[in-house]
Amino acid sequence: MKIVVSACLLGENCKYNGGNNLSEAVVSYVKGHEVIEICPEMLAGLGCPRPPVELVNGIIMTKDGMNLDDKFHEGVRLAMEMIEGKEVDLAILQSRSPTCGVKQIYDGSFSGNLIKGQGIFTKALIAQGIKTIDSEDIS
What is d(CA 13, CA 27) in angstroms, rounded to the nearest whole number? Predict the structure, then answer.
C-alpha cells in the first residue's frame, strides 16, 4: 500500500512553529508500507518557522493580513506533482491545518475556534479520488 503522510506526523520539524506533530500511532500504522512524506508548505519554500495562517473567507492569510494563498496553493501543486501516477491508496494528514485538515480547520479568526472543513491539500487529494484520514483517527 502507498500512503501519503503529513511529514510533521513522522517527526519532521516542519510545523509553522518549528516543531512537529510526531504520532507514534501513525508511525506504527505505516510501518511496512511505502510512505510518501509530504509537507506542502515546505515544498513551497515557506520555511520553518513561519507565521501561523488560517483560511479567512477562503484565502490563506496570516493574522496580520498577509495573503499567502498563492504560496500555499503552489505547495499543494508541487505535492500533487510528487504523487502523480503513483497510485496512492491513502493519505494520513494533520488535523486542523489549513493545508492538511481532514475534518476540521480553524475558523479564520485566529482565536483557536474550530469549524468543520478541509484544508486545501486534503481537498486536492479527495478530488483525485484519494482516501484521506485524520491522524487523530489512527490508534
Answer: 15
CA–chain centroid gap for 100, Å, is 3
Residue of 4, 2, 1 whose CA lies nearest to 102: 4
| pTM, rounded to two decimals | 0.96
Cell 518549528: give the residue: 18
pLDDT, one tens digit per residue, over 70-103 is 999 999 999 999 999 999 999 999 999 999 999 9
Whole-angstrom Cα Rg for the chain = 14
Q: What DSSP assignment string belongs to 51-70?
A: --EEEETTEEEETT--B-HH
Nearest to 12 by CA among 1, 27, 29: 27
Burial class from Cβ neighbours inside 10 Å (0-12, 13-18, 19+) for residue 80 reads middle
Pair 120, 94: CB distance under 8 Å: no
